Amino acid sequence: MPRPALVERARARVLVMFSGEPNGEPGWVRALADGDDDGFFGPGSAVWAVHSATPTIVAGIRALLMQTLHPGAMAGVHDHSRYRTDPLGRLAGTVRWVLTTTFAARAEAEAGCAWVARLHERVQGQYDGADGEPVAYRADDADLVGWVHCVFADAFIGSHETWGGPVPGGSDQYVAEWARAGELMGMTDPPRSRAELDAAIASYLPVLRRDARVDEAVRWLRSPNLGRGVGPGYRILFAGAVASLPTRYRRMLGLRRPWWPAITATRLMLAGMRLLLGPESSSVRYSRQRLERLARQSA
Q1: Residues 6 or more apart from 69 whose CB is under 8 A from it?
Q2: Global pTM?
Q3: Domain containing 66: what range?
Q4: Looking at per-residue confidence, does 154 or 7 come out higher?
Q5: CA of 63: how far to CAs of 36, 152, 299, in Å?
Q6: Using CA atoms, how far apart are residues 231 and 108, in angstroms rounded to an integer?
């Protein structure tokens, strides 16, 4: 049954946010049908279960909030990111990396990670340390690579634990599988269980801090310029991301848990987005085409 024009416009707007194209099928998504193997994960994996579900939408906000607390990561975003002038472009780039690593054949996933690593080579500079002395940073420093991997993994599985369905093997299996993404980005010995992930994030506490740059980024994340059609829904998702954060980190960010039922409101918003976007994403659909082709070739 054809969708009403208003629904089609809303769907196209959401797909532009995440893929850069109103039909949700840019060239890199269609390329998921190419390749000669099943990829690093697969349809029965914990990673597929988590990354093909709508809670990843909230996970993106939650990850960016957490990322700001590391002064090196915040300096890189502040000095080099285009998030203020092109928020949708930056979002689409992050989505491309996550989905390519998740659903593509191995060679394509490795190439996607290498592409991001090359971008990171140019992200370097200095920030003021806790004692006022300048501290040099590079986005490909092991410390920052580890931090970014851990906060993304925590955001993905934490959001799924709050709003998603069952995960094959549970949260521990997800963290163990997604460790492969950390290795592809150059991380040594990434965490491989939920407890290890929590401990890895906590190990950064002596370094984490809130400052004026963090406050600026949080203000922007609270109300980015996404247009009137998207803004009200985004504010619910932002509140859900804040409510889902562990209390320790929420307080470090200077945020309060919303007084209204943000977790429930976010659940309803995500249910609406599932109806809007359909039961299966284009990324999953093209990946299944590759797997079906390979199965026919091996029969």
Answers
A1: 208, 209, 210, 214, 249, 252, 253
A2: 0.91
A3: 5-298
A4: 154
A5: 32, 5, 42
A6: 34
How does pLDDT run across 248-258, given as a tens digit for each residue?
Answer: 999 999 999 99
The C-alpha atoms of residue 58 and residue 162 are separated, in whole angstroms, by 10
Cα(257)–Cα(30) distance, integer angstroms: 40
User: What is the residue type of 273?
Assistant: M
Please give the torsion angle defined by the CA atoms of residues 265, 267, 273 and 276, in that order, rounded to the nearest 10 degrees. -90
- Cα–Cα distance between 59 and 64 in angstroms, integer? 9
Structural domains of the chain, count = 1
